[in-house]
Amino acid sequence: MGNFDMGYNWTQSQDHLLGASDHKAAGHQGAGEITGLIANCLIAASQGCVDAYFDLGVAFSTGSHGAVCDLIEAHKWFNLAAVGGHDEAAYCRAEVSEEMTAREIAEAQRRARAWIAANTRRAA
């Protein structure tokens, strides 16, 4: 799955975070609206939404929707989505891994564990 496909999947999966008309409008607005889309995903992710984990992975892997391209963050979010049972996340994580060093992958895994620990404590 190339970046085009992941970007397409991002667009298709946004309906659960924003209404379809809001999402289309956000695509034609300034960076503030686009950053709001990332903020909505982060809120949903903090509530355990596996689709939001995946969407954040796509955003960071492609540098889209206001996110800076960051493969470590992308790997982290794809890893969280894969652990949560998202069907495509493990494949996307593997694809991103091909472009990363072993140290970057280790850092992404550390960040994923830290996210899980922080959000488990918050839920308790």
Automatic annotation (TrEMBL):
> Organism, per UniProt?
Novosphingobium sediminicola
**What InterPro entries does the entry give?**
TPR-like_helical_dom_sf
Q: Which domain of life is it from?
A: Bacteria
**What is the protein name stated in its UniProt record?**
Sel1 repeat family protein
